[in-house]
Design a protein that fits this description.
754 residues, alpha+beta, Aldehyde Oxidoreductase, domain 4, 7-stranded mixed sheet, 6-stranded mixed sheet, 27 strands, 28% helix, 23% strand
Length: 754
């Protein structure tokens, strides 16, 4: 249900309605084309040989037998991917992640690749490649990686963010700090202080569609790539840079996407597929197996977080601090930085300090997972908030309300907030019937808050009016969660025409100007903004054409409800002209009618959510069942409420899986032990209750329609909400995610024995 705030002045006609999704029929009937559905004449099958070691020197690779196998058209090693990055360390890291260069840095690291006429031949060829390894010491645990004597992953990594700059290499790639005030003075004023360490294990986005692409490079150096991705323009730029191709000569087309959640924002095997195609002079298709997806594409970080919060007996927080250690895999990242920024963003704190440490391990390169880094920080902070509330004898919801951020609050990561929705979400939780529902035996209720920044970025949109008055909208942001429907609604609203008259298409990289990745909840925010301006651009053209048709000044023409209307005593009696009538005469009034806009959509509105969760825990087995779940989140303005609710529910569902079951399990040998959905258990329908949603609308003043991104925030509270619920159900505080049955039983046993 949407709340109408008094300062929501804008009245909409189609925005906020729930039309059928434009991709629905194709997806349920199997007509939609995903990454592995592309074919090309003469295409080859590409396969990648991966390291069985967590850390090893590659002493020698002998590909001679594979090259001689009939049906093999290309064999690739790092020698076929020379470093063309010009010293750009970020690109060098991507290149080395795509194909090991002298060392295998994690179990699953690519060391060679083949392209053959069929899968059977390609598999034989992989077995014929002989690799000599010298195993090296490895480390996969985030805390162990920074102990004295831990194996150093890279001798060129010297911790950034430390003064003076260190002279010895380290597995700590970066230290970042945020905050304001004097935390020590703040803690000195506290009546109660809670300090505790929290751990979370590594998880994968778990998208249903594995990584897949079809690459084709011709002898003239031009290439095409069909790929499942969240950002085909970024893939074009990265792949062309790594292969020394002209950007304009690499055309990238995005397929439908069978889930991404941040995991399809990086290239993994796409440059390898292009290099194989270039060497074989044939199209090459590469599709990862599920095991490869787990072992060699980016999961999220495992973490170890220390949280300390102090408060007066009246519930006012006097100081808060956190030290966050985030494992980023074998290459430097920014994940602890994001955790340090988001940790205390929900609260109005006078004294706050967060320090993040990005740490290297012999694991796959970490990538984004839906509000990356925020869920782990929130698990520690929101769990500590509940412990502190209990210690001072205050209701945890009232404790949060007392300390919630508001307009004018200086955020823990720096800026001053404008209009924000954290207090409205908490008040909505307070008034929700879920909070008054009775609990049974072995059941517990928890709640938690969450925050995400949201991003804007570079966006480009074309809007073309057809001769029948229908509108073709061309965008460059991948539709990962319903943006085509939302963007069509925005265009229809702005032009004053029915939603059914608008068709939104995702263009390839040769058909539109550059667009940033669909990440950071930017799709509807940024593309919606560009669409509004492109539509207004087209309206100016429509007014000019109507003026020509009437032979009156354009100043005497207004556009309303999808029609041109002449104004003033002199022209007011002229019959209105519909968009269809104007479009039909376009050839005689100046040519095609179009609108265009490119924008850097700055000032995305921050996003807040508060969740309620009820669980039932079996004290004999430790198994936990989520019996009721409610998401309350501020959407700014819900363009298509069905999709907004779907994003709320999807984030919560993934958070539930993360909280209870999902984790990467590494053996002492540094190898991943559960690289598949049989042993890495994501929640299925029977594991989940119906997830109730409540949409709040506190408009973002920096968007014409008040839009805030909604896709990421709702994965942030579940870990803590479920942790608080379990702790309330069993009377023991859970401090390690996932809160699996063995961990719950151990916590209960430890509590009994102590």
């Amino acid at each position: 249900m949407a709340h109408d705030y008094s300062y929501t002045k804008q009245k909409f006609k189609v925005i906020g309605t729930r039309p059928e999704r434009p991709d629905g029929i194709d997806k349920v009937t199997g007509r939609a084309k995903y990454g592995a559905d592309a074919t090309a004449p003469g295409q080859l099958v590409g396969l990648i040989l991966r390291s069985p070691h967590a850390h090893a020197i590659i002493k020698k690779i002998d590909t001679s037998k594979a090259e001689k196998l009939p049906g093999v058209k290309a064999v690739l090693t790092c020698a076929d991917l020379p470093d063309l990055t010009g010293g750009n360390r970020d690109l060098q890291n991507i290149l080395e992640n795509c194909m090991a260069r002298g060392r295998a840095l994690y179990d699953g690291h690519a060391v060679a690749a083949v392209a053959a006429v069929d899968a059977q031949t390609a598999k034989k060829a992989l077995k014929l490649i002989k690799v000599q390894y010298k195993a090296l010491p490895h480390v996969t645990d985030v805390d162990e990686a920074i102990l004295p004597g831990a194996p150093i992953i890279h001798d060129w990594v010297f911790t950034r963010g430390i003064d003076p700059a260190p002279t010895e290499p380290s597995n700590i790639s970066q230290r970042t700090q945020f905050g304001h005030g004097d935390v020590e003075a703040g803690f000195a004023k506290a009546d109660v202080i809670i300090e505790k360490t929290w751990k979370t294990e590594q998880t994968h986005q778990g998208y249903i569609e594995p990584h897949a692409c079809l690459a084709s490079v011709g002898p003239d150096g031009s290439g095409e790539l069909w790929v499942t991705t969240q950002g085909h323009f970024t893939f074009r730029n990265v792949c062309s840079s790594l292969l020394g191709m002209d950007v304009a000569k690499l055309k990238v087309t995005a397929s439908e996407i069978g889930g991404g959640f941040g995991g399809k924002t990086h290239v993994w095997m796409e440059p390898v597929a292009l290099a194989l195609s270039r060497k074989a002079n044939r199209p090459v298709k590469v599709v990862m197996s599920r095991e490869e997806v787990f072992r060699a594409s980016g999961p999220t970080s495992s973490t170890s977080v220390d949280v300390k919060i102090g408060a007066k007996k009246n519930g006012v927080i006097t100081a808060a601090s956190a030290e966050l250690r985030y494992q980023g895999g074998a290459f430097p990242g920014i994940w602890a930085m994001l955790g340090a920024m988001t940790s205390f963003a929900c609260y109005d704190l006078k004294n706050v300090k967060t320090v993040g440490y990005d740490i290297l391990c012999n694991r796959p390169k970490v990538t984004a997972y839906r509000a990356p880094s925020a869920p782990m920080a929130a698990f520690g902070v929101e769990s500590t908030m509940d412990m502190l509330a209990a210690e001072i004898g205050m209701n945890p919801l009232e404790f949060r309300l007392k300390n919630a951020a508001k307009q004018g609050t200086r955020a823990s990561y720096g800026p001053v907030y404008g209009p924000i929705g954290i207090k409205p979400t908490l008040n909505a939780v307070k008034n929700h019937p879920h909070m008054r529902a009775r609990l049974g035996k072995n059941q517990g209720r928890g709640m938690a808050c969450g925050f995400w920044f949201n991003f804007g970025g570079q966006t480009c949109v074309d809007l073309n009016v057809g001769i029948d008055g229908t509108v073709s909208l061309t965008v460059g942001t991948i539709d990962v969660g319903g943006s085509r429907a939302a963007i069509s609604l925005i265009a229809a609203e702005e032009l004053g025409i029915p939603y059914e008259q608008v068709k939104t298409n995702v263009a390839d990289t040769a058909s539109l100007g550059y667009n940033d990745m669909t990440e950071g909840s930017r799709g509807t925010f940024s593309t919606g903004m560009a669409t509004i301006f492109a539509a207004r651009n087209a309206i100016e053209v429509l007014r000019e054409r109507a003026a020509k048709m009437w032979d009156i000044p354009v100043d005497a023409v207004v556009w309303e409800n999808g029609e041109a209307r002449a104004t003033g005593k002199k022209h007011g009696n002229l019959p209105r002209l519909t968009i269809k009538q104007i479009a039909a005469k376009a050839g005689n009034t100046g040519g095609p009618i179009a609108g265009h806009n490119e924008v850097v959509a700055d000032n995305a509105g921050v996003s807040f959510a508060s969740h309620i969760c009820d669980v039932e825990v079996d004290p004999e087995t430790g198994a936990t069942r989520v019996i009721r779940y409610t998401v309350v989140q501020d959407a700014g303005k819900a363009i298509h409420p069905d999709y907004v609710e779907g994003q709320f529910q999807g984030g919560a569902a993934q958070g539930i899986g993360w909280a209870l079951n999902e984790e990467y399990i590494y053996g002492d040998d540094g190898r991943l032990q559960n690289p598949g959905f049989l042993d890495y258990r994501i929640p299925v329908c029977s594991d989940l209750p119906f997830i109730d949603t409540e949409i709040l609308e506190i408009p973002n003043p920096n968007h014409p329609y008040g839009v805030r991104g909604v896709g990421e925030t709702s994965i942030v509270p579940p870990l803590a909400a479920i942790g608080n619920a379990i702790s309330n159900a069993v009377g023991v505080r859970m401090d390690h995610v996932p809160m699996s049955p063995p961990r719950i039983l151990k916590a209960l046993d430890d509590a009994t024995s102590s």
